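Hi C.,

You asked whether I'd gotten around to modeling the 115-residue construct. I have! Everything is below, sequence then structure, no commentary in between.
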Amino acid sequence: MHTVATESLTEARTAEALSHPESAEIELPAVLHALSDPIRLKVVEALAAGGERTCKSFNLPVTKSTCTHHFRVLREAGLIRQRLEGTTRLNSLRRHELDQRFPGLLDAVLRGAGF
């Protein structure tokens, strides 16, 4: 049986697990670090096409725990937004916020990577 306290704790953990930096808190070194990994760069490139995607939809050649790590780095750097739908995390690129904070950066990185 669930209690109100248990449900509140679960909601708090979920909110904490999906915390995102505010637009003004996104830092260039964190963004560049996140984009320095080929797996994460591939995720960003795919999300740049638009829309939301589940973590599984990327079919990345890494273990589940490594995949989780990559998405956490991208989220904490401010590159992606994740939201829960049931037990699934949906990912989207924070394109507008990134373009406002660092004009032209994302396009230059994706172009330089050949995407």
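If it helps when you're writing up: Strands lie at 53-54, 80-85, 88-93.

Thanks,
B.
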